[in-house]
Batch of 2 targets.
Target 1
Amino acid sequence: MSVAFRRDSDEEHLEPKFERPIAPGPNLVTPRGLEMIGAEVARLEAAIANAPAEDIEALRRDLRYWHTRATTAELAPRPEEGEAGIGSRVTFQQGATTRTVEIVGGDEADPASGRVGFQAPLARALMGAMEGEAVASGGATLQVLAVE
């Protein structure tokens, strides 16, 4: 058999594992986001204690990410009453469609459940808006109906 078709192990052909990317800019969070980060750190620490050897490095990589997020987390200031900001629930209308989103920190974002990270274009368009205002977002006009 030719040496070209032999290999001693699969280890030498694995892709390198990179650190999880961290979004640039401040790590603004809501109180819920701060709790979520703490819970994720605790979950990963417990998982590492009970993990098989082959899973530990991936768990440690995730733990490094969450430790960094916990260290850099800044509680976002509360927006003024009636003004959209981080931690606000905003109901808006675009054409015939009415939608409600909550503006949250980047790690809390889950668009499917209506949580939009403050760095997202939609959140940036809504932040600072007051109830009754119209704002532009991606070529569309959004009418802000309510800010909680």
Note: Helices lie at 31-50, 53-72, 121-126.
Target 2
Amino acid sequence: MGRIVLAGIELYARHGVHAEEEKLGARFVVDVEMEVAFEGKPDAIGSTVDYGAVFRFVQKLATEQRFYLIEALADHLADAILERFGEIRTLVVRVHKPHAPLPGVVRDVFVETTRAR
């Protein structure tokens, strides 16, 4: 098994429980860590997961539907990625909300979910 990581997919979306979050939107960051059986296979895109396709899929999914909770967004992404990309054996998805509306300074808030076949 080998590991492929898409770290720091930045996107603009309207997730959150507050009306202002729907109206104004915010920056979100998604990390996707995938374990794939590619070692010893040919030097061809068909012998691994196309991480460009995963990137585009994450961007599309994370911006086409609004979620109140980043937990729900992370679950949605993880389930859809695993369903779409059969080459992935295990998957970790993190959704960061770096500018979460909190009553103080916090560098980052994120949730993490894991899936395996």
Note: Residues 2-116 form a domain with the GTP Cyclohydrolase I, domain 2 fold (CATH 3.30.1130.10).
